């Protein structure tokens, strides 16, 4: 059964590790360094955003809500206008111009 130390010294029993082992260790170190640097900078960036995040979310919500209220007012005015037109047409006995369906005979 091979152990890690046996594999380190596999091609030459003198004690120097093989090229594959050296390459694998070097690749692990490079990947670890890149991962560590990425995590460090990501965490550092997140700490800076924590202060502004609640304010930004609150402002986005207020903007969306104001947009909704702004869209509702003309919509309600249009509904009121159509309702009064229908009521006027019912009183006078004629058909509405906005009506798309035909009256049953």
Describe the protein in words.
- The model has no long low-confidence stretch (mean pLDDT 78).
- This protein has 2 helices and no strands.
- The chain is rod-shaped, with a radius of gyration of 37 Å.
- The chain has 105 residues and is mainly α.
- The chain has one domain (4-92).
- It has helices at residues 4-8, 19-92.
Record keyword descriptors for this entry:
105 residues, mainly alpha, 2 helices, rod-shaped
Record the SSE blueprint.
Layout (H helix, E strand, L loop, with lengths): L3 H5 L10 H74 L13
How far is it from the N-terminal to the C-terminal residue, by CA?
96 Å
- Structure classification: mainly alpha
Number of domains: 1
Sequence stretches where pLDDT stays below 50 over 5 or more residues? none
* Fraction of helical residues: over 70%
Average pLDDT for all residues: 78
By DSSP (H or I, 4+ residues per run), the number of helices equals 2
Largest sheet: none
């Amino acid at each position: 059964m091979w152990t890690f130390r046996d594999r380190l010294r596999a091609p030459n029993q003198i004690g120097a590790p093989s090229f594959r082992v050296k390459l694998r260790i070097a690749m692990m170190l490079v990947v670890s360094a890149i991962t560590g640097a990425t995590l460090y900078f990501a965490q550092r960036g997140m700490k800076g955003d924590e202060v502004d995040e609640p304010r930004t979310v609150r402002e986005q919500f207020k903007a969306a809500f104001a947009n909704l209220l702004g869209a509702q007012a003309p919509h309600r005015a249009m509904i009121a206008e159509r309702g009064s037109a229908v009521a006027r047409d019912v009183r006078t006995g004629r058909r509405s111009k906005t009506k798309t369906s035909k009256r049953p005979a």
